[in-house]
Amino acid sequence: MSKNDGNPVFLFDVDGTLIDSAYQHALAWREALEQVQIYLPAWRVHRYIGMSGGMIVHALAREAGRQLSREEQERLPKLHGEAYAKRVGEVKVLPGARELLSALTNAGVRWALATSSEREKAKPAFEMLGLNDDVVIITRDEVKRAKPDPDLFFAAATKLGAEMLHCIVVGDSVWDLLAARRARAIGVGLLSGGYGEDELIKAGAYRVYKDPADLLAHLEETGVRTAGN
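The chain above was modelled as a monomer; its predicted structure follows.
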């Protein structure tokens, strides 16, 4: 049995949720696809941002009506990583992200990050957030399957010593919220990754907020109890 002080435990996606990087990822995938002669508009690529690298490769090939060779399947995630690295200087922390994490820490609320990115690729995001060494972070390298499978969130909850029924998954994509539902956790959606409110609610979001700052302003709606309440 995990410890429970009355507060929920928060499990955060990173890209599009705490870091304003969803569109850079979409453009990087589009650039990678063009190198294997697949041409898709950015909006169609964006619909799959948030999936694991392997799944997004298959989904985008299907969108284009292309069969990929094994070599292309292995090459595309690498091409995406290279294309994203060229854009990482454009990426910023979303409004209120650092303040939200600090507020949770100050309130004694446990939280972790769970990202579909590999740890090496995610390092710039972690540096932008100014994370301490003791922050629990689960990356793609540490689980068998990434989102929309719930493995990342299960691993993060386990590392925190929490049960999923006490967890709130915060994400910006329908794939985050599908993974939350499969894990039997409460899902909270953010609009900062480009998905619409209706889409996030249909995917299972209990509440939808504009960005981390908006979530912080309404934190009591998630059941967080601080000294003042």
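The chain has a mean pLDDT of 92.
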